[in-house]
Every structure is written in C-alpha cells, then in structure tokens.
C-alpha cells in the first residue's frame, strides 16, 4: 500500500502526510515545489501537467487530495480532471477529497465555494472510490499574527455566528479514518467540534470579540497568499455574513453537536475532535 498526498507542502496536506507517515504507511507527498514533511517521499508536480500527475500515481493505492488555493474555474477543472484520470488509471482503492471549507448546498457565485462543489461532484461521479471531507474553519487561523492580541480576538465572521472549528491534526485523523477505514465510499463527511460563537470563544480565553472588517482581512491575507487567493477567501466571509450564517453549524459530523468533547469522522470509525477552548488553552500564547 502506498498513499499519495496531494498538497503535502501546505498546512492541511502537510498535516495529513505527517499523520499517515507516523502511522507507518509509505507516503508520497506531491507539491508544486517538491516540499514534503520529514519521512515523506517528495514529488514535485504542477497539477496542470497531466503527464507529471500520472507519474506521481505510480504504485499508488490510496490518495488524499487538497487542492491549491486557486479559484479560477478553468485551472481547477483541469487539476481535478488530471487527478481523477490518473487515479482511475492507477486503480486507486480510495480517494479522499478535502474541499478545504464547508460548502453551501447550492451555487453561490463565490468561486472558492463553487469550484470545490464542482470538484466534489466530479470526484463522486468519477468511478474512483471517493469520500469527500468538508471541514469547517481551522483553529490554526486563530494563531495568526494579530488575531488574538491585547485581550481582543479579531476574526472576519460576525461575533454571533456559531462556528464549528477543526484543527489540522483532527483533519489529518479524519482523513486517515476516511482513507483507510472500512466505511462506505460515496460519502460526504463534515467533521468538526460543537459550534461556538466568536463572542463565546473570546470569553473562554478572557478576551473580547471584535469582528474584523473583511476588506482589512483581505489586505492582510494578500501579503501572504497573493491577491487572487486572498480575494477568493475573503469572498467566502462576505457570503457567510450575508447568506450563510448557518454554514458552519450544519452537518457537524455524523454524531451531531451533542457531545462537547468528541466528534465523529463519520467514515471508518470515530475520532476525537478537539474542542476549541481546549485547543486555545494549549497554545503557548494563551497566557498572554
């Protein structure tokens, strides 16, 4: 068994690759630059290069896919087509697609949502045994500079909107369970912790909540991700505020939100999902 992790150079895919390698699996990590965590076989490829993507699947039995932060429909369609054709040709036993965000149940006009909805639909219809993971917001976002500072928690989601949070480590555990467990293919799973509002989350660490202006958020993110990716991410927050205040509460795991301490990966067995308060308390900057 050999597992290909597409996006292994990023935060989400890197967490998945590290988890699978730690579990003792042979892991090949595909990234554009060829970067991969320690213990993972690096493989450099652009997802737009069909021949190179096919090479990455040599000997591969399972694949985890996290798409890059590209939201233009044409390139994303090509990435997904190349991956699915290579997976089919390799006879992959299970493909897990991480959509990177919860997805509305309808077209929104927001490219970051709509391109991932199309990718999930294509994967589920491809004939390749597929599970789709639809995570909520990541707790690691709260550790970014300026988010929790001087007793103020700043985030672009309105303070009264409940959000189910997930850590990268829990994403990796859910991916492993979906990839290697015996759960049914064709499932869409939404792992996450019981939802809390921004105001509640801030209070848990002795802070007050301040809704961050989305334009200011986009400007700061642009310096890290580039203007195109930052605009795509910022548009999701604009849509949530206007149309999707329940996006991060719906489908929180197959177990629902009744258990404060644990969530359910829904495929291949239960995983423990770290509650946001516990994650925040464990951070080295929490005392500040």
UniProtKB/TrEMBL annotation:
PANTHER family in the cross-refs: PRESTALK A DIFFERENTIATION PROTEIN A, PTHR43162
UniProt source species: Nonomuraea montanisoli
NmrA-like domain residues are 2-181
Q: Which Pfam families match?
A: NmrA
The name this protein goes by in its record: NmrA family NAD(P)-binding protein
Q: Please give the superkingdom of this protein's source.
A: Bacteria
Annotated InterPro entries: Ergot_Alk_Oxidoreductase (IPR051604), NAD(P)-bd_dom_sf (IPR036291), NmrA-like (IPR008030)
Q: Where is the signal peptide?
A: none
Mind telling me which residue stretches traverse the membrane in this protein? none
**SUPFAM superfamilies on file:** NAD(P)-binding Rossmann-fold domains
